[in-house]
Design a protein that fits this description.
Strand content: 15-25%
GO molecular function: peptidase activity
Helix content: 25-40%
Structural class: alpha+beta
Order of helices and strands: EEEHHEHE
Distance between the termini: 66 Å
Number of strands: 5
Strand order of the largest sheet: 4-3-5
Function: Involved in the modulation of the specificity of the ClpAP-mediated ATP-dependent protein degradation.
Radius of gyration: 26 Å
Subunit structure: Binds to the N-terminal domain of the chaperone ClpA.
InterPro entries: ClpS (IPR022935), ClpS_core (IPR003769), Ribosomal_bL12_C/ClpS-like (IPR014719)
Protein name: ATP-dependent Clp protease adapter protein ClpS
Length: 121
């Protein structure tokens, strides 16, 4: 039985970000730029049918707000027409919108939420 061939060792990276290929030629490696993901605001929109206590419950349960924070956001929704429930990455924001919308429909409320990109500073 012959031993299995050994895999070639991984190339060693030098501080100047160059390495040698199999023919001994020098290759320059590019650094990739890492950017923070774009953030999205989850907004609760006002309607005339969803009870205020339900909105507070949603903010506490899905957005982990304290009762005081939830009350303030609920009042902003009631008086200004919308309120920011939280700021998240796109996937998290869309998931929260879907979860809360499903919960509201199941409870028989027309609560609306949207996720919109946060303005760049």
């Amino acid at each position: 039985m012959t031993p299995a061939p050994r895999a070639a060792p991984l190339p060693r990276y030098t501080p100047d970000m160059t390495r040698r290929d199999q023919e001994g030629q020098t290759q320059t490696l590019e650094r990739t730029q890492v950017q923070r993901p774009r953030l999205y605001r989850v907004l609760l929109l006002n309607d005339d049918y969803t009870p205020m206590d339900f909105v507070v419950e949603v903010l506490e349960r899905y957005f982990r707000k304290t009762e005081t924070e939830a009350q303030l956001i609920m009042l902003a929704v009631h008086h200004k027409g919308q309120g920011v429930a939280g700021v998240y990455t796109r996937d998290v924001a869309e998931t929260k919108v879907a979860q809360v919308t499903a919960h509201a429909r199941q409870a028989g409320h027309p609560l609306r939420l949207v996720a919109e990109p946060e303005a760049d500073a």
